Amino acid sequence: MAGSNQGIIDPPIDNLLDRVSSKYELVIFASKRARQINDYYSDLHEGNLFDNVGPLVDSSVEDKPLTIALHEINEDKLRIRHAE
């Protein structure tokens, strides 16, 4: 993953869509997680380490938060919890 810059090609979109009920759910799920990762890096820069969870997969500095989030979803590191 590190340094690959494959975007949506890696992981394949079909693999990602198998893990959610719709493409819209995938977009919302990945964007919320990407925001958490972005907040984590901002907090890390400020010295606040315990407010957000960092990447759950191997990543490099060049990897964008959305790419990291998609890899986490593809590797089943995250699960969608539907509100009841």
From TrEMBL:
Protein name according to UniProt: DNA-directed RNA polymerase subunit omega
Gene3D superfamilies registered for this protein in UniProt: 3.90.940.10
Keywords: DNA-directed RNA polymerase, Nucleotidyltransferase, Transcription, Transferase
One GO MF term attached to the UniProt entry: DNA-directed RNA polymerase activity
Oligomer status and interactors: The RNAP catalytic core consists of 2 alpha, 1 beta, 1 beta' and 1 omega subunit. When a sigma factor is associated with the core the holoenzyme is formed, which can initiate transcription.
Catalytic activity: RNA(n) + a ribonucleoside 5'-triphosphate = RNA(n+1) + diphosphate
Annotated EC: 2.7.7.6
SUPFAM superfamilies assigned to the protein according to its UniProt record, in alphabetical order: RPB6/omega subunit-like
One GO CC term, this protein: DNA-directed RNA polymerase complex
One BP term from GO: DNA-templated transcription
Domain of life: Bacteria
Top EC group: transferase
Coiled-coil boundaries: none
Task performed by this protein: Promotes RNA polymerase assembly. Latches the N- and C-terminal regions of the beta' subunit thereby facilitating its interaction with the beta and alpha subunits.
Lineage of origin: Bacteria, Bacillati, Actinomycetota, Actinomycetes, Micrococcales
Sequence similarity: Belongs to the RNA polymerase subunit omega family.
Short name of any one Pfam family annotated for the protein: RNA_pol_Rpb6
